[in-house]
Each structure stands twice: as structure tokens, then as C-alpha cells.
């Protein structure tokens, strides 16, 4: 149940960012759900493989920054995979990753 809730919240964040950031384009809510799913899968697999050695090198002190950066990279990868999803630049990907991380943290508290 938590996975579905997180997926829907991340899809809502992606759609909300299309209204706030003009450099983010998503065609519809179905695309937002698929993009959120792919970002979650990429973060769980490829993102973990990238984050693990970086956290070891930094002794976990920069864990939040590493997680933020890797999530932004996964968002840019999702941009490459979907034609109905477009992010112009890396800064909007970092902003989206920051909002997703904050929302995930708040969801974990409740």
C-alpha cells in the first residue's frame, strides 16, 4: 500500500512541477504515473548500485546529497526513455528530486 501511495504522490509531484517549472513537460497523468514508476525502479536498482560506493567513500556523511544527485540522474534517464516526458536542463531534475525526497521523508514519518 505504501508503494502505491508513494507512486501516486511522486506522479502528482511530477505533474505539479509541470505547472511550476516551464522546462518540465508531461503530456498526461498516465505518463506521470509511468515515469514515477520507472524513476522508482531505476532508483531501487541502478541508483542503489551508484549510491552504495559513494556512501562508502564519504562514510555516509553526504548521504542526502548523494541520494538527491542520483535521483536527479534517474529522472534525466527517465527523460531519455519517455517521449511524452521532457526536462530541459539538470537544475529542474534536481528540484524535482528535492521535492520527491522531502515528500518521501514526510510520508515515512506518517
Sequence stretches where pLDDT stays below 50 over 5 or more residues = none
Report the total helices.
4
Series of secondary-structure elements, N-terminal to C-terminal: HEHHEH
**Strand coverage percent:** 5-15%
Organism: Pedobacter psychroterrae
InterPro entries: Phage_holin_4_2
Keywords: Membrane, Transmembrane, Transmembrane helix
Protein name: Phage holin family protein
Blueprint of the fold:
Blueprint lengths: L1 H19 L3 E3 L2 H29 L5 H19 L3 E3 L3 H19 L1
Antiparallel strand pairs: 1-2
Helix pairs in contact: 1-2, 1-4, 2-3, 3-4
Write up what this structure looks like.
The chain is mainly alpha-helical and 110 residues long. The chain has one domain (2-109). Helices cover 78% and strands 5% of the residues. The chain has helices at 2-20, 29-57, 63-81, 91-109, and strands at residues 24-26, 85-87. It has a two-stranded antiparallel sheet with strand order 1-2. Helix 1 (2-20) crosses helix 2 (29-57), helix 1 packs antiparallel against helix 4 (91-109) and helix 2 (29-57) runs antiparallel to helix 3 (63-81). The radius of gyration is 13 Å and the shape is globular. It starts with a helix and ends with a helix.
